[in-house]
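Take a protein:
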Amino acid sequence: TEQLVPCSEDEGWTYVNERGGAQVVYEKYLTPYRQSAGASSSHDHDSKEGAWEYLTQHVRPELLTRFTKGEEWTISSASSGIQDRDEIPGLSHKEVEDVIGEEKELLMLGIDMKRTWREGAVGRERTEGARDRSWLLGDAVTRHEGEAGGGWGSANLGQTEVCFLMVLTLANYSCLEEWKRILAMILTCEKAVQETPSFFAEFLRLLKRQLERVNDVEGGLFDMSDDGGSFLKALLKGFKRILEQSSEDKSEGVDEVKEEFDDVEQWVREQYGWELGDEFARRGMLELEDGEMVEMETAEMEGEDESGEYAPVVVEL
């Protein structure tokens, strides 16, 4: 039997050092807090370069100064970008702040998913801008060039990292919305994939690093089930089709992007059972518990296939 006895801090460290140091004591005598997470290869970075550095490779001081609107770089769970503030009918922002207290405003990238084309665009250009968000990405990159230090679009990558970490550590709702906006913008680009493939390859590496960390929070950072993960799953499926089309067009540089996407696809398949391809049965026979065979048909993919109620309709004017 062993008994705990009081000791000074110096005596405690002497005991630890006699047994080979803190790392040896940890590995030999202590159990990891999250054993399931310990099996993940992503946690190798804890000992190699540090998890924090691993998740902040594109974050620069200029970005943090702009994001927090000051040199102090402070943020709380209730800090919010102006586009994510709750609107209370009949009350101005000033009146809302008087009621619930003033919180720090965050300056986001200014991504407007409701207008993804240049000002003054009409007709076909607006239609293409709604389907392909390459112009929106280029505009976001251009407006924040002063924060970039690692190549084209590095400020956008840094914003993605900051927002993810603020969700991970503070459960900040506004940062979650910005993170989702950035993903929705980048993963729906078509022309930009061919023009700046290195940016998309780096983004996919970044996304995989983040997804490997979602379970660091008790219960998981996001609901990654089929229902809860539908937002990200739909974006990845759409981006896979974009890459397949680019491969058919033999676009230069896209191979690196496809390799990184394959890594993401394999990871979500192993972790969540997601199938991002379109090769699955939509109609088939299902055997019930009593042995009866019934024919079943799923309408789950009608929206993506533009079939059923989502099929295009020709209107004669």
About this structure: Residues 31-44 have pLDDT under 50 and may be disordered. DSSP finds 16 helices and four strands in the chain. Residues 186 and 213 are 21 Å apart (CA to CA).
